[in-house]
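Worked example 3 (structure in, sequence out).
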């Protein structure tokens, strides 16, 4: 269920914003929150909570450059041509 919800959010964010990095960031945050909630409410292995928090943190860490470009308004949208280098 977490994967289905995450996929729906991921695709929805991309369709609305046209930023794949934004879809990854929001999708990973949603997945992390849902797994954390599931771990707290369903008797799951506590390692699942660490996976939820750690996995989300790694995704955000690896998207640092994308976050910087998003905040600066310089991230390239899906379907736009690359600028000539």
């Amino acid at each position: 269920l977490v994967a289905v919800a995450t996929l729906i959010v991921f695709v929805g964010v991309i369709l609305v914003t046209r930023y794949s990095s934004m879809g990854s960031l929001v999708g990973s945050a949603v997945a992390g929150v849902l797994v954390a909630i599931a771990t707290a409410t369903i008797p799951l292995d506590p390692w699942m909570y660490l996976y939820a928090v750690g996995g989300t943190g790694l995704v955000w860490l690896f998207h640092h450059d994308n976050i910087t470009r998003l905040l600066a308004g310089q991230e390239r949208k899906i379907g736009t041509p690359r600028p000539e280098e």
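Notes: The helical segments are 2-17, 20-41, 46-62, 64-72. The two ends are 43 Å apart (CA to CA).
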